[in-house]
Amino acid sequence: MATGGWFPFEVRAVAGGKVVASAGVERLGVGEVFVIAGQSNSANHGAEKQTTKTGRVAAFDGTRWQPANDPQPGASGSGGSFLPTFGDAVAEKLGVPVGLVSCGVGATSVREWLPKGATFPNPPTLEGNVRKLADGKWESKGDLYAAFCARAKALGPNGFRAVLWHQGESDANQKDATRTLPGKLYREYLERLIRDSRKDIGWDAPWFVAQVSYHVPGDEASPDIRAAQAGLWKDGVALEGPDSDALKGELRENGGKGVHFSGPGLRAHAAKWAEKVVPWIERQAVGKDR
Predict the structure, then answer these.
(1) Percent of the chain, pLDDT > 90?
(2) Residue 185 is inside which H or E element, if any?
């Protein structure tokens, strides 16, 4: 079982054996922290805003911590996310506070998350975070990568438990087939993102990678992208995240017709994440998984 909780914290300045100044806070949380990245279903694009029920889940906006009620600071969108409910599940199971650092940006391809100057043969469907080169190739502008690394690095070495990556829809089964990313390249690019970001933040942060490729009924999965995501688990590059493609029907917005999650879908998504993350933390606590 993980250890932690809320504690009073006081700092005192002593000169000549006397306390000359002091400051403190009544509640300092010692618990679990997660960085969340990817596209819209990692961010604030769900149908219903969620709130933390335990009061033990906080979100970091880059400057301060606040209650982790949607929308999450640092992520795109103004709707709901799976994060408050996920944080509650972790807090209740482990008995510790939970911190969330959200970085997701809607409609983004893994290509857009690559470091500045990383090149690829074809652009994603949206081109705001990439540019075309004179030789016909495309490159990432690096803005999303830089922002992600800055948020993660601000937490310090070993300052969070894991990255939760939920992305793939904008690389799978695009209407313009030239914008679809082959699974082999998806795997290559995501592995580069993981490995390069670890170097840039200064430690080997664990990554959970979800299986993500769902669009709408009738376009519910890309075996190619799913295989690429699973390949990262099998080769030990990342840990196994939830299969969110399995969340269908009433769990999706607009009566099951949309790509984003409904209120019940957000809560089901949160439960799926907790099912993967909590047992892993518990195994770490007894030295069975590193």
Answers:
(1) 86
(2) helix 183-201
Cis check for the bond before 121: say yes or no (omega within 30 of 0): no
Give residue 284's pLDDT.
87
Q: Which two tokens stand for residue 96?
A: 């510790």
- How many residues are listed for the chain in this entry? 290
pLDDT tens across 59-105, in order?
A: 999 899 999 999 999 999 999 999 999 999 999 999 999 999 999 99
Structural domain spans, the chain: 31-285
Token digits of residue 186: 């998806």
**Virtual CA dihedral for 161, 34, 283, 269, nearest 10 degrees?**
-160
- Tell whether pTM > 0.85: yes
Q: And the tokens for 194? A: 């993981």
Exposed, middle or buried by CB within 10 Å (0-12, 13-18, 19+), for 182? Answer: middle
Identify the burial level of 241 via C-beta atoms within 10 angstroms of its C-beta, where 0-12 means exposed, 13-18 middle and 19 or more buried.
buried
Q: Which pLDDT score, from 0 to 100, does residue 107 have?
A: 98
CB 46 within 8 A of CB 265: yes
Looking at CATH, the fold of the domain delimited by 31-285 is given as Rossmann fold (3.40.50)
Angle at 274 between CA 6 and CA 61, to 5 degrees: 55
